[in-house]
Design goal:
The complex is a heterodimer of chains A (about 425) and B (about 525).
Chain A: H1 6-17, H2 22-36, E1 53-59, E2 83-85, E3 92-94, H3 98-102, E4 107-114, H4 120-129, H5 142-149, E5 160-163, E6 182-184, H6 200-218, H7 222-227, H8 230-241, H9 256-262, H10 266-279, E7 284-289, H11 298-322, E8 329-335, E9 338-339, E10 351-352, E11 354-362, E12 370-371, E13 386-387, H12 388-398, E14 406-408, E15 414-416, H13 424-427
Parallel strand pairs in A: 1-7, 1-8, 4-12, 4-13, 5-6, 5-7
Antiparallel strand pairs in A: 2-3, 4-11, 8-11, 9-10, 14-15
Helix pairs in contact in A: 1-2, 10-11
Chain B: H1 2-23, H2 45-63, H3 73-85, H4 91-99, H5 105-114, H6 117-132, H7 144-157, H8 161-170, H9 182-185, H10 198-210, H11 229-236, E1 242-245, E2 248-251, E3 256-260, E4 265-269, H12 286-294, H13 300-315, H14 334-345, H15 350-359, H16 376-379, E5 387-388, H17 391-401, H18 413-430, H19 445-453, H20 455-460, H21 468-475, H22 479-491, H23 497-508, H24 514-526, H25 529-532, E6 533-534
Antiparallel strand pairs in B: 1-2, 3-4, 5-6
Helix pairs in contact in B: 2-14, 2-15, 3-5, 5-15, 6-7, 8-12, 10-11, 13-14, 13-15, 17-18, 17-22, 21-22, 21-24, 22-23, 22-24, 23-24
The chains are: A alpha/beta (about 425), B mainly alpha (about 525).
Chain lengths: ~425, ~525
């Protein structure tokens, strides 16, 4: 897909938005110009081997590690769940992940994730940002940090996208609302409302008038009006509307064979859209799969979810590899916590933040490794525990982002991107 | 034959008349609602207003904060209708507003709103979000619309807020016949023999009615609140005898038994309140006891939570954020206590509370300041805050702006169908921010896309026979008048001199017809920051 030329974009925006709009857009254009420089596609970080994009497969509700990445077949806590051999000797997954098992050479697991948050909202915040909720500051999610730190590249569409977003989509936090994810539904068709219904000259006249009226409202409110992001989002919307990259959202443009790879589900289409978006230069895509809050009938619900997850996750890895994008794209599959080893009277598993699993694959991550181990009796603490902050530091390192970089929050507090230590065993060859 | 001709002629004449009335509404349609000036002179009304203002004034002078000037009357009118009815004033209402004597207009407008069905409906919907959430809830057992309609009826009848809350917590019966019981049935768990969930109920009660997040103590002891995990369990136990059966919600015998997940045993929990135990009555069902404790005049949280929510509805931001958490480390504005005390000592009268907040100078300040650009003034309420309108406020405003007459409960059925239908589709696209209603987030690209290119704005700003663009084009033969009417209809203000000159020139430009120019102006104003943000 050939993106429109940079000059064309500047010209279009300038004409559409009216010349005086260029002042607030200055920063944006400056960043865009930065992306024009030779080697612009590489991240700002010097590490050329670093990943450039991240895809988060978000399992809302808290997926059971025992029915996915950490089976304990034959033990009481398994409740009958069986395991399957993967393409890497000695690593087993739970039955239902047969296709992913073949990709194990590219995938690594952390089976000893430890958090202190057992509530959905707090847990989601914790895993997405690497910090526990704090009444005085809102931390950015890892995708927002990636967008903030990595070069703009050639994206004319929002660089942070959340597909089928859940109740708590990734957001910019103290970096600013403009780093919030662009939210979208099932990408089965084109993005709605992106076609102007007016002849170009009439739209131009309207936008000129708009610019004129905006001036009177901004008097005495300039800073606040800027913070509303109203005008910035209009610019973003207009830029999207005229961009060829808009097609990246529309998976109906893919051949049937590729769509089949991901499975015929909204989540599968979301993963396919994620690949198309990453190809177009989007930095972070979050694809949401809900239905993991299995307080009752855990095994049945997990099996149904795995049928969706398995083809989509493995299809994504295969497709990225075929297109030589896997080395530059980090894929993470995680939820807000895991589920209890014990099974409750309604056949469910409850929230379990101490010793759950996540999977990482692709850019910057060594495949075929397992970090940590949980007790098959479900009694002892996991071995080689990984804290949530450690996971974030690992991801940032894989993306070539300095995780210790200190930032100022709006109220003047200093916060690092992550307070953890990278898990070297996942990064080093 | 003669009769048939007569019938035909009558029908044609009737049709033309109907069309005429619809296209060109009478200039002075409805007589203005009578105001209630006495309400502002009642017991210590002005005293409370003054004390609220003085408390803010004190903090501004201590912190040396520049305060904004008083806002225009029309600006305040717009704020009030957005906050209390979820829409903007119609051209028709603006005309009525301006026939009132200057200085008395805003009070008259508050009275007008408080008597309007749209106020009760809108407030009921916003309350329902806090009481039962936004989801549809369990099929069969939950009737959200009945619950909202019931709340609306209580507001219309002027039932004191504490009584409403007691009924919400403690009513027995079928969710179809006793709509208040939907508060209980929304938590029904299909996998637990269709019984309500005491834990969720307790969480709702504390958040919605007391403004404390006791449910955080469900999993861990709260870092700075005075209650512990055991307190939350004890509070949940008040719903331990609440069951749902053939005859609806009832309170039966039995004890509240929970699974202790750590010790893997079952244990019985007795009902217990975390503080002010002396306010708990000995009589009644457990739910009745709890409802009396929650709404007790000496339970300080109850009135404060209600005041914080009403303040947030009116101003777009709560006094203490988030709106359901009064237990913060941050300093709390003294106004919260002053208003809560007045609310308590006047029988939890919501109308009085609305009138008092809306009468303060603090509420009536401009949302701009030529002296302060630091943003401190806005945070300290020395300047009215800008806040993003909710999707239904934007949709309601687009529909109202595009119609000269008031779109309300008395409007023609077709108009209202158009309104509800268009609203729902629009709200989905515009994106609902969910349960946390008062976060101060920025706008999003999908919102701008739906306003720039979406069906609602396209149709409502187009040249159809029932849109304001068309009517204004016909009604206002002079260009200055036409520009002024579009500004009033969409932004509830007159154009500045520069704006008037700019758009009058456009209307005379040869590029396109006058009608198209008016449509363009309408579209332009609907897409401004000013339209989408309460100010």
């Amino acid at each position: 897909m050939e993106p429109l030329g940079r000059r064309h974009f500047i010209r279009t925006t300038a004409t559409l938005a009216g010349a005086t709009w260029l002042t607030p857009i200055g920063q944006w254009l400056a960043r865009a110009a930065d992306g024009e420089a030779p080697g612009a596609l590489a991240p700002k970080a010097t590490d050329a081997s670093a990943a450039q994009s991240v895809i988060v497969l978000w399992m809302q509700g808290g997926p059971s590690q025992l029915e996915s990445f950490d089976p304990h077949e034959g033990f009481k806590i398994a409740g009958g769940t069986t395991k399957i051999q993967t393409s890497v000797k000695g690593i087993y997954l739970a039955s239902g992940l047969e296709q992913l098992a073949e990709e194990m050479g590219s995938v690594s697991l952390i089976r000893s994730m430890m958090s202190k948050e057992g509530d959905h909202e707090r847990g989601t915040y914790n895993i997405k940002t690497g910090f526990r909720p704090d009444p005085t500051v809102i931390h950015p999610s890892l995708g927002a940090v990636a967008c903030h730190e990595l070069a703009i590249g050639r994206a004319e569409i929002p660089r942070h996208v959340s597909i089928l977003s859940s109740q708590w989509p990734a957001r910019g936090g103290y970096l600013g609302d403009k780093w919030d994810a662009f939210l979208m539904d099932d990408p089965a068709g084109p993005v709605p409302d992106t076609k102007s219904y007016l002849p170009q000259d009439r739209e131009k006249r309207r936008l000129e008038g708009l610019n004129f009226v905006e001036q009177s409202f901004a008097k005495g409110r300039s800073k606040r009006v800027e913070e509303t992001l109203h005008r910035e989002t209009i610019r973003g919307a207009l830029k999207m509307m005229t961009s060829e990259q808009l097609k990246a959202f529309d998976v109906s443009l893919e051949p049937q064979s590729v769509r089949d790879l991901y499975g015929d589900t909204a989540f599968g289409r979301g993963c396919l859209a994620a690949r198309r978006l990453v190809e177009a230069g989007v930095r972070c895509v979050e694809v949401n799969l809900g239905g993991w809050d299995t307080h009752a009938n855990n095994h049945q619900f997990c099996a149904a979810n795995l049928k969706i997850l398995d083809p989509a996750f493995s299809g994504l890895l295969r497709d990225l590899r075929q297109r030589k994008l896997l080395d530059k794209t980090l894929v993470i599959c995680m939820g807000e916590f895991g589920r209890t080893p014990s099974i409750n009277p309604t056949g469910g598993r409850d929230h379990w933040p101490s010793g759950f699993s996540i999977a990482l694959a692709g850019g910057g991550i060594q495949g075929g490794r397992v970090i940590g181990e949980t007790d098959p009796e479900g009694k002892d603490e996991p071995k080689k525990q990984v804290k949530v902050a450690d996971l974030h530091s690992t991801v940032f390192e894989a993306l070539g982002i300095d995780h210790k970089k200190v930032n100022q929050t709006p109220i003047g507090r200093t916060v690092k991107f992550s307070e953890g230590d990278p898990v070297r065993a996942l990064l080093d060859a | 034959m003669f009769l048939r001709n007569l019938l035909f002629l009558t029908m044609v004449t009737g049709g033309i008349l109907t069309l005429g009335v619809n296209l060109i509404p009478p200039r002075h349609g409805l007589p203005p609602t009578p105001g209630e000036p006495e309400s502002y002179k009642t017991d210590r009304f002005q005293d409370t207003v003054d004390r609220v203002d003085a408390s803010f004034q004190k903090s501004w002078s201590v912190e040396n904060i520049q305060t904004a000037l008083p806002a225009e009357e029309l600006t305040i009118a717009r704020r009030l209708s957005l906050g209390l009815m979820g829409t903007i004033p119609s051209l028709e209402e603006i005309r009525q507003f301006e026939t009132q004597p200057s200085g008395e207009r805003v009070n008259w407008w508050i009275d007008h709103i408080l008597q309007d069905r749209r106020y009760a409906d809108y407030l009921a919907e916003r309350m329902a979000r806090a009481f039962v959430g936004t989801e549809d809830g369990p099929f069969i057992f939950f009737r959200r619309r009945k619950f909202v309609a019931w709340l609306s009826e209580q507001i219309t009848k002027g039932v004191p807020y504490d009584q409403v809350v007691r009924e919400v917590i403690a009513t027995e019966g079928l969710w179809t016949e006793k709509p208040a019981t939907n508060f209980i049935t929304v938590t029904i768990q299909n996998d637990k023999e269709n019984q309500p969930d005491p834990v969720r109920l307790a969480g709702r009660v504390t958040r919605a009615f007391l403004g404390v997040r006791l449910d955080c103590a469900q999993c861990h002891d709260h870092p700075f609140a005075p209650w512990k995990q055991a307190d939350f369990e004890g509070f949940s136990a008040f719903f331990g005898q609440t069951h749902v059966g053939f005859r609806g919600v009832y309170d039966g015998p039995g004890e509240y038994i929970i699974d202790d997940r750590k010790k893997e045993v079952k244990r019985t929990v007795l009902p217990k309140v975390a503080f002010a135990k002396e306010l708990l009555p000995a009589e009644g069902t457990l739910r009745e006891q709890m409802s009396i404790w929650v709404t007790h005049k000496e339970n300080p949280y109850f009135a404060r939570a209600a005041v914080n929510r009403m303040w947030a509805l009116l101003c777009g931001q709560p006094l203490v954020a988030p709106v359901d958490n009064l237990e913060t480390e941050a300093p709390i504005a003294p106004a919260l206590k002053i208003l809560a005390d007045d609310f308590t000592s006047h029988d939890f009268d919501l109308s009085r509370l609305v009138r008092i907040i809306a009468s303060t100078q603090t509420y009536r300040k401009q949302s701009l300041s030529l002296l302060d650009s630091s943003g401190l003034a806005e945070k300290a309420w020395a300047q009215f805050p800008l806040s993003r309108l909710r999707p239904e406020q934007v949709a309601g405003s687009v529909l109202q702006a595009s119609s000269v007459a008031t779109v309300n409960a008395d409007s023609h059925l077709v108009t209202r169908l158009v309104r509800y239908g268009a609203q729902n589709d629009f709200i989905k696209r515009y994106g609902d921010s969910g349960d946390d209603e008062f976060d101060s987030r920025g706008g999003t690209i999908p919102q701008r896309l739906v306003m720039l290119n979406g069906k609602l704005v396209r149709e409502r700003s187009g040249g159809g026979p029932f849109t304001a663009s068309t009517r204004i084009q016909w009604l206002a033969s002079e260009d200055p008048m036409a520009v002024e009417l579009v500004f009033l209809a969409v932004l509830t203000r007159r154009p500045t001199l520069e704006e008037a000159v700019y758009f009058e020139e456009k209307l005379q430009a040869p590029e396109q017809s006058r009608g198209q120019e008016i449509q363009d102006l309408f579209w332009t104003l609907v897409n401004t920051t000013e339209f989408s943000w309460n100010h």
